[in-house]
């Protein structure tokens, strides 16, 4: 790939996909930007006057917006804590040699293959339902009051459902990292007098730091746009207790028919996601260089 | 201090017996080298002593206390691994300080010992670098540094030089020998390289398929090998081992003559042969000579500028007092 000839050939070959990708990305973004400046209601789509930044001030001053922003952050951070912490523990377990480890590994990874809507519905109706749900049944059987998860702790419920879906991903990445740790290092630490906990803290965890970074970065990107789980379980409610930014934008467009405000919300979400991304890359991305 | 005693130590992985019952005595301050071909169990033996593997049966005594059931950290041994096994995310300083930190030593004492070790090993200039930024030789020194700060009863080296290039290996060999002279601590050193064994050891343990073939000083093994395996393994190039009619003449099943104990002549001698490949080392030349005595060519050491070429006829005369005789079980006849 060194000569001028091969370079230009490579460029020509890649051009179609690069152009297609650019269009794919740039056109919707441009249209969203454009719509965000219009007073565009689905109930009156004929008149779409230019309103400047009105949609933005409307969206940002909406009290639901700040609630949704906080919910989004709680959702992301909550799921990250559970999946990274749980992922490390499960990976440590799966790294052990026990009978049937291959089957267990397969089972642990299975939730990742369940569609978000299906997973959320299963959790809502079969696990968390206070009457029919497994958790409710269990609590009743030991004489406790069952919890109505979706109305009492809607955001926590969604965090649990999403964490359940993403735990396999974190586990998988962390397990591969764990398996790449040379046994020599562990043995050296053992000879140096480190106990199991010290080996984990001083040897294993630093070794996994890069994988943990990758998990956090990738998951954050996906978790900022959680939608299906909210739609099929709580619908953002009660009130706006489980509304995140994505769901708020959806509500603006579909429930209230306000395409202009929804577009403005979409742009705000893009900007916020970028701020988060920049912070993350600054904060932990340097782990990836070493 | 650092006397180590193995009694009836046996190691098996399931059905596979790696080390059949074995006894060994290592005196305090000795430099002992375990040498043998790959898969002879020498590394396993070292790991048994270190406590990284459990013995199947038998006892390991370190300093008079039974260490068979002790965990590695409690045996007061330090090990240098073939891969160095440095902690990649820690600086050299932290690597060396790690065992002391684990022992809960106070900060000032740790600093003192680390800088002392760094001085001994010439690591002063790299003390704040990470292992990834060091060369092979420097990493090796860090690994040794991590071992010496603990002031262990004995050092264990598991083929520490096999990842280094030839020139560096010679240098590190000297450094380790020098270190032993200075510290006077027991060292157990595993290698497959008999040159390393010969040059460094006070005592060599030759292992073959888990058995100890012979224990002795380098020169003892060289001049009085107990059997054909040791005879063939110690010495470079290998001893010539002859069977058949020529051995019969000496009342033995096998006789052995080292390449350096055969006199060469172009005019007269005991055995007639044809020169095959010559290996010129400058100071010496090793000739591979085909004879009627043996299907394999014999190796003979000649002077650096011995004037023969491929296909020339030469005459070989072994030194009578340097002929090793072995019986039909391969044991030396004395």
From TrEMBL, chain A:
<keyword id="KW-1133">Transmembrane helix</keyword>
<feature type="transmembrane region" description="Helical">
    <location>
        <begin position="106"/>
        <end position="123"/>
    </location>
</feature>
<keyword id="KW-0472">Membrane</keyword>
<feature type="transmembrane region" description="Helical">
    <location>
        <begin position="68"/>
        <end position="94"/>
    </location>
</feature>
<dbReference type="InterPro" id="IPR035906">
    <property type="entry name" value="MetI-like_sf"/>
</dbReference>
<feature type="transmembrane region" description="Helical">
    <location>
        <begin position="253"/>
        <end position="281"/>
    </location>
</feature>
<feature type="transmembrane region" description="Helical">
    <location>
        <begin position="155"/>
        <end position="178"/>
    </location>
</feature>
<dbReference type="Pfam" id="PF00528">
    <property type="entry name" value="BPD_transp_1"/>
</dbReference>
<keyword id="KW-0813">Transport</keyword>
<keyword id="KW-0812">Transmembrane</keyword>
<keyword id="KW-1003">Cell membrane</keyword>
<feature type="transmembrane region" description="Helical">
    <location>
        <begin position="211"/>
        <end position="233"/>
    </location>
</feature>
<dbReference type="InterPro" id="IPR000515">
    <property type="entry name" value="MetI-like"/>
</dbReference>
<dbReference type="GO" id="GO:0005886">
    <property type="term" value="C:plasma membrane"/>
</dbReference>
<comment type="similarity">
    <text>Belongs to the binding-protein-dependent transport system permease family.</text>
</comment>
<feature type="transmembrane region" description="Helical">
    <location>
        <begin position="12"/>
        <end position="35"/>
    </location>
</feature>
<dbReference type="GO" id="GO:0055085">
    <property type="term" value="P:transmembrane transport"/>
</dbReference>
<protein>
    <submittedName>
        <fullName>Sorbitol ABC transporter membrane protein /mannitol ABC transporter membrane protein</fullName>
    </submittedName>
</protein>
<feature type="domain" description="ABC transmembrane type-1">
    <location>
        <begin position="69"/>
        <end position="280"/>
    </location>
</feature>
UniProtKB/TrEMBL annotation, chain B:
<dbReference type="InterPro" id="IPR003593">
    <property type="entry name" value="AAA+_ATPase"/>
</dbReference>
<dbReference type="Pfam" id="PF00005">
    <property type="entry name" value="ABC_tran"/>
</dbReference>
<keyword id="KW-0813">Transport</keyword>
<dbReference type="InterPro" id="IPR047641">
    <property type="entry name" value="ABC_transpr_MalK/UgpC-like"/>
</dbReference>
<dbReference type="GO" id="GO:0015423">
    <property type="term" value="F:ABC-type maltose transporter activity"/>
</dbReference>
<comment type="similarity">
    <text>Belongs to the ABC transporter superfamily.</text>
</comment>
<dbReference type="GO" id="GO:0005524">
    <property type="term" value="F:ATP binding"/>
</dbReference>
<feature type="domain" description="ABC transporter">
    <location>
        <begin position="4"/>
        <end position="234"/>
    </location>
</feature>
<dbReference type="InterPro" id="IPR027417">
    <property type="entry name" value="P-loop_NTPase"/>
</dbReference>
<dbReference type="InterPro" id="IPR015855">
    <property type="entry name" value="ABC_transpr_MalK-like"/>
</dbReference>
<dbReference type="InterPro" id="IPR003439">
    <property type="entry name" value="ABC_transporter-like_ATP-bd"/>
</dbReference>
<dbReference type="InterPro" id="IPR008995">
    <property type="entry name" value="Mo/tungstate-bd_C_term_dom"/>
</dbReference>
<dbReference type="GO" id="GO:0016887">
    <property type="term" value="F:ATP hydrolysis activity"/>
</dbReference>
<dbReference type="GO" id="GO:0055052">
    <property type="term" value="C:ATP-binding cassette (ABC) transporter complex, substrate-binding subunit-containing"/>
</dbReference>
<dbReference type="InterPro" id="IPR013611">
    <property type="entry name" value="Transp-assoc_OB_typ2"/>
</dbReference>
<dbReference type="InterPro" id="IPR012340">
    <property type="entry name" value="NA-bd_OB-fold"/>
</dbReference>
<dbReference type="Pfam" id="PF08402">
    <property type="entry name" value="TOBE_2"/>
</dbReference>
<protein>
    <submittedName>
        <fullName>Sorbitol ABC transporter ATP-binding protein /mannitol ABC transporter ATP-binding protein</fullName>
    </submittedName>
</protein>
<dbReference type="GO" id="GO:1990060">
    <property type="term" value="C:maltose transport complex"/>
</dbReference>
<keyword id="KW-0067">ATP-binding</keyword>
<dbReference type="InterPro" id="IPR017871">
    <property type="entry name" value="ABC_transporter-like_CS"/>
</dbReference>
<keyword id="KW-0547">Nucleotide-binding</keyword>
């Amino acid at each position: 790939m060194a000569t001028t000839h091969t370079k230009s050939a490579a460029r020509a070959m890649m051009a179609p996909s690069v152009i297609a990708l650019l269009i794919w990305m740039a056109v919707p973004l441009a249209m969203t930007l454009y719509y965000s400046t219009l007073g565009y209601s689905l109930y009156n789509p004929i008149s779409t006057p230019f309103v400047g930044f009105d949609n933005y001030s409307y969206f940002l001053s909406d009290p639901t917006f700040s609630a949704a922003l906080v919910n989004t952050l709680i959702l992301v951070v909550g799921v990250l804590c559970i999946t990274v912490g749980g992922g490390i523990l499960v990976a440590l377990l799966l790294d052990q040699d026990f009978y049937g480890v291959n089957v267990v590994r397969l089972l642990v990874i299975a939730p990742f293959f369940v569609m978000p809507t299906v997973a959320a519905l299963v959790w809502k109706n079969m696990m968390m339902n206070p009457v029919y749900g497994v958790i409710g049944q269990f609590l009743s059987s030991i004489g406790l009051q069952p919890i109505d998860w979706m109305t009492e702790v809607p955001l926590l419920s969604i965090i649990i459902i999403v964490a359940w879906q993403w735990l396999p991903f974190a586990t998988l990445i962390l397990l591969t990292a764990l398996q790449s740790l040379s046994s020599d290092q562990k043995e050296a630490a053992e000879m140096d007098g480190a106990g199991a906990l010290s080996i984990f803290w001083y040897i294993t965890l630093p070794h996994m730091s890069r994988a943990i970074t990758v998990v956090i970065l990738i998951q954050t990107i996906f978790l900022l746009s959680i939608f299906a789980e909210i739609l099929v379980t709580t619908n953002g409610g009660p009130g706006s207790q489980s509304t995140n930014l994505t769901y708020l934008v959806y509500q603006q467009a579909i429930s209230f028919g306000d395409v202009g405000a929804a577009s403005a919300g979409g742009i705000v979400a893009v900007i916020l996601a970028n701020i988060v991304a920049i912070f993350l890359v600054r904060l932990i991305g340097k782990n990836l260089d070493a | 201090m650092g006397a180590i005693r193995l009694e009836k130590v046996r190691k098996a992985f399931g059905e596979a017996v790696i080390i059949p019952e074995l006894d060994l005595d290592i005196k305090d301050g000795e430099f002992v080298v375990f040498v043998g071909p790959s898969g002879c169990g020498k590394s396993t033996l070292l790991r048994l002593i270190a406590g990284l593997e459990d013995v199947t049966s038998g006892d390991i005594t370190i300093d008079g206390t039974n260490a068979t059931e002790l965990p590695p950290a409690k045996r007061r041994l330090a090990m240098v691994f073939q891969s160095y096994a440095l902690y990649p995310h820690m600086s050299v300083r932290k690597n060396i300080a790690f065992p002391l930190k684990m022992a809960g030593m106070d900060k000032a004492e740790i600093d003192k010992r680390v800088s002392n070790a760094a001085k001994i090993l010439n690591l002063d200039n790299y003390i704040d670098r990470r292992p990834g930024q060091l060369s092979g030789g420097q990493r090796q020194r860090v690994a040794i540094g991590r071992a010496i700060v603990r002031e262990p009863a004995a050092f264990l080296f598991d083929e520490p030089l096999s990842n280094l290039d030839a020139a560096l290996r010679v240098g590190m060999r000297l450094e380790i020998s020098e270190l032993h002279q200075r510290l006077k601590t027991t060292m157990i050193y595993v290698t497959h390289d008999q040159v390393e064994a010969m040059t460094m050891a006070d005592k060599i343990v030759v292992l073959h398929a888990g058995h100890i073939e012979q224990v002795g000083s380098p020169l003892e093994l060289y001049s009085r090998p107990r059997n054909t395996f040791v005879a063939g393994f110690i010495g470079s190039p290998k001893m010539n081992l002859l069977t058949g009619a020529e051995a019969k003449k000496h009342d033995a099943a096998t006789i052995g003559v080292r390449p350096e104990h055969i006199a060469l002549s172009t005019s007269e001698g005991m055995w007639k042969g044809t020169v095959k490949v010559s290996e010129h080392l400058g100071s010496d030349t090793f000739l591979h000579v085909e004879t009627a005595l043996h299907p394999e060519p014999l190796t003979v050491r000649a002077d650096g500028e011995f004037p023969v070429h491929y296909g020339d006829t030469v005459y070989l005369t072994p030194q009578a007092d340097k002929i090793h005789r072995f019986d039909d079980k391969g044991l030396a006849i004395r």
